Amino acid sequence: MKKQKKTYLLLTAVVIIWGAIGYQIYSRMNPPIPKLETLTIENKFQKQELSEQSFYELTKEYRDPFLGGFPKKKRVTKKKAPQKIEPTITFPNVVYNGVIGGSQTKSYILTVNGKQEILNKGETLQGVKLVKANSEEIVVTFEKVTKTITKQ
Fold first, then answer.
1. Which residue(s) pair with 112 in the sheet?
2. Which among 108, 78, 114 is positioned nearest to 96, based on CA atoms?
3. Is the four-CA dihedral 48, 54, 59, 60 of positive or negative sign?
4. Which of 13, 28, 85, 114 has a CA-to-CA distance to 128 between 20 and 30 Å?
5. What angle do CA 13, 15, 18 make, to 5 degrees?
6. How far apart are CA 30 and CA 20, in angstroms?
7. CA–CA distance from 139 to each of 9, 52, 101, 104 (Å)?
8. Which residues, other chains included, contact 122 with Cβ-Cβ below 8 Å and sequence gap of 6+?
9. SS3 109
């Protein structure tokens, strides 16, 4: 083939290829508009008759411009029957100081109202009875009031 024929043949192939590419770009940028189907909707709306409306009363509780708060509502207080007053028992000051371990029995060091004594379980000092005890805490009673005290 001649050189000129090859050039024309290649030129037409290039134009066809670029034309196909251009057509695809154009068709993607401007897609065809789809047809929309119209739907027929039946009108099922029924007008409701107006009924009598209840009216509301507004209470005028405006904010106080000087104090910044709303007016306080009056409270109705009921008188309560007087309750029985039981005498309060002041528990003595009890401090758990530690434990003294013997071979068979253990004794516990307590300070009651500033007086330090060594007590075993079940013993009483100034009305304070040692009920239960271990190395961390003790349980004492005073006039039927029970209290648990931890070691200091």
1. 94, 115
2. 108
3. positive
4. 85
5. 105
6. 15
7. 112, 74, 18, 21
8. 129, 130, 131
9. strand
d(CA 13, CA 6): 11
Q: List, in sequence order, every residue forming a beta bridge with 5; answer none if it has no partner.
A: none
Which amino acid is present at 104? Q
What is the reported pTM?
A: 0.42
Q: Could you give the angle at the alpha carbon of 92 between the alpha carbons of 143 and 100, nearest 5°? A: 100
d(CA 138, CA 106): 13
110-150: per-residue pLDDT in tens? 888 888 888 888 888 888 898 888 888 889 998 888 888 88
